[in-house]
Amino acid sequence: MESVCVPFSNWPCTSIEGWVAIGTIALAAVTALLWWSTSRLVRETKLNGERQLRAWVGMSALSRSGFGRGDTVKFVAELQNFGQTPASKVEVDYGIALSGTPDDDVVVIALNVVVPPINPGEHVSVVLSDLYKVTLEDIPNLDAGLTHTLLAGTVKYRDIFGRRRATNFRAFATGRAQTTGIKWLREGNDQR
Fold this sequence. Notes:
This protein has 192 residues and is an alpha+beta fold. The protein has helices at 16-53, 138-143, and strands spanning 57-64, 72-81, 88-99, 111-115, 123-133, 148-158, 164-174, 183-184. It is elongated and about 100 Å long. It folds into two domains: 1-53, no CATH class; 57-184, Sandwich (Immunoglobulin-like).
């Protein structure tokens, strides 16, 4: 008489049906593990492709024009798309301040400049100026290097994947003569 094996009821089963049931369960577990790892690999590959192909907008150069009493402080930022696809809806939110230390916080919500789309490798110059006019009292401290001109802000843009991206910048200059040796601050800065 042939014995009927019901898996897990009279273990160990010696009939073929029991081993087929165990093999089916093991195959289902391996298939689920393979599906999970493959879907994870597909997700990571897609993100890596986005990272490599997306727009990367930042500053390739920054200078400041000289100024005197009654003038506004002006920086000229050269934005560049370092990525491989165009950047659209480009905006620069920024703030400029005169301060005794380069580490002071600068409010970056005050001013905004809208920039046309930037193609890969393309440079766009943007004038960032403040509404504040330099006073007679500011000039001696600027000339002596006791007061710094701070610039901080964010370049915001949309890449071809429809994602909103941002690059933060924070720099300072000493004195009031035209300066090309702008120093980038370490904290709060993606421009390093």
